[in-house]
């Protein structure tokens, strides 16, 4: 059971816990957590749970109301972390970022900002070194979307152009994982 990918109810538990204990400095949702973990499992060096777990909370662990709640969050986080690591190592083509969606003028828009922001947090925590130009460009594809504000989309928001950028994120993440894997 501990090696099984998370289901919708598991992600709901993670989401609820992040909302309950999070603040402006912490990971705020499962999309951002997914991006954070993707960067960590793709990293050129291993990042220990003792480092990444407090980073979820902005550097300070929450004051848990119930130790079982903390245990459950850690177990689900580790399962998701391991699922991403296994998937990217064994079948990276099946990897799909956990993006959010929104409605804009009657269209469903896939939003990558929070996932990309989580990814950038993971890159920073793992202290990725400089990379060759191609890989640096792939990372910039992700970082650019991390900085694009999508909380409220302007009326003239160019959905097709944005979706083209979003479509580049998963291939970039896969390629960065593969690059670092080949360097280990």
TrEMBL record:
InterPro entries: YgfB-like, YgfB-like_sf. It comes from the Bacteria. It holds the Pfam family UPF0149. Gene3D superfamilies: YgfB uncharacterised protein family UPF0149, PF03695. This is UPF0149 family protein.
């Amino acid at each position: 059971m501990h090696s099984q990918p998370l289901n919708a109810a598991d992600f709901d538990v993670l989401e609820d816990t992040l909302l309950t204990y999070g603040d402006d400095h912490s990971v705020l949702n499962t999309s951002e957590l997914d991006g954070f973990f993707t960067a960590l499992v793709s990293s050129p060096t291993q990042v220990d749970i003792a480092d990444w777990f407090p980073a979820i909370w902005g550097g300070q662990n929450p004051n848990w109301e119930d130790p079982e709640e903390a245990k459950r969050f850690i177990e689900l986080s580790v399962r998701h972390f391991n699922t991403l690591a296994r998937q990217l190592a064994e079948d990276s083509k099946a990897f799909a970022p956990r993006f959010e969606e929104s409605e804009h003028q009657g269209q469903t828009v896939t939003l990558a900002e929070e996932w990309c922001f989580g990814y950038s947090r993971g890159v920073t925590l793992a202290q990725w070194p400089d990379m060759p130009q191609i890989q640096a460009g792939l990372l910039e594809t992700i970082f650019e979307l991390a900085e694009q504000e999508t909380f409220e989309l302007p009326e003239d928001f160019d959905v097709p152009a944005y979706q083209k950028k979003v479509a580049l994120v998963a291939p970039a993440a896969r390629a960065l994982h593969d690059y670092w894997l080949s360097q280990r």
